[in-house]
Amino acid sequence: MMRLAAATMLCSLAVPATAGELSLRLPIDCMLGETCFIQQYVDQDTGTGARDFTCAGLSYDKHKGTDFALPSFRAMQQGVDVLASAPGTVRGMRDEMPDTGYSKDTAAAIEGKDCGNGVVIDHGDGWQTQYCHMKRGSIRVRSGQKVAAGVVLGQVGYSGRTQFPHVHLSVRHDGQVVDPFDPDGKITCGSPDTDTLWQTPIAYAPGGIISAGFSGTPPTYADIRAGDAGRTTLSADSPVLMFWAYMFGSQAGDSLRLEVTGAGGMNLTQTIALEKPQAQFFRSFGKRRPDTGFAPGTYQGRVTLIRNGQQIDTQSVPLTITP
């Protein structure tokens, strides 16, 4: 769900490169796995399918970069910096596209500008990095400017061909896409390459929980994506007690377990079968208000994503119900 014009190159596969020639730091100022996550990787499939460097499905057809995503539009609005992954010289930038994302209504305006607002940096010896989908008006560098690794380029946005706020990092050598997680192109399923372009090793997450929370009304997907659905306190006379979870990277056959325990002996559990791969999705369950209202006190919601009988991710969220 990404791509500046230079990112729309014809190659669909990352090509081999010599690891160690370029040393990369994270292109985003966040805590990976806590305040941001990797949504998708470079597509390693030469056909019409998609597979990431572990041979799993966290990619899509002809995807040419790594997507570092934010958990909500609220996080984007608060401002998260995009950082230069390596020292170099700015070779191009764009900063005027609105943060509208991609839809049938915006498709014509985005045509040929899939990357949205972005920056291209030349690192010498044929190496370039490209940073896409940045926030309009946020870019702080100009063409010809020399930058050090870690310099702020701008902020994460929602411009160009995207459906969620993130920065898309493309790495190229001599004009060809290189997967920073597998720079030599020698994929061994189940045994990811330990020789990467990252300065600090990045653990692979095969999917996971973006956020979870309680609400006093049935949550909407728009509110969850916006970051507006969660509540830490509800009243005893709330119409319903809902627990929801927002996730990424599901596979067919996964299951999701939602649990709520708390005051008055509440003990609710629901296991939901996930029938298809989804980049991002949410599920919720809950209970209508009893005639006497919900018992005041403390509650806890817990969500667990399960794959092949193994826990992929879990998250717990507290709630207080007041009289």
TrEMBL record:
Q: Which UniProt keywords apply?
A: Signal
InterPro entries according to UniProt: Cell_wall_metabolism_enzyme, Dup_hybrid_motif, M23ase_b-sheet_dom
One GO molecular-function annotation for this sequence? metalloendopeptidase activity
Q: Where is the signal peptide?
A: 1-19
Q: Tell me which residues make up the M23ase beta-sheet core domain.
A: 62-180
Please name the Pfam families in this protein's record.
Peptidase_M23
Keyword Transmembrane on entry: no
- At the top level, the lineage of the source is Bacteria
The name this protein goes by in its record: Peptidase family M23
Recorded source organism is Thalassovita litoralis
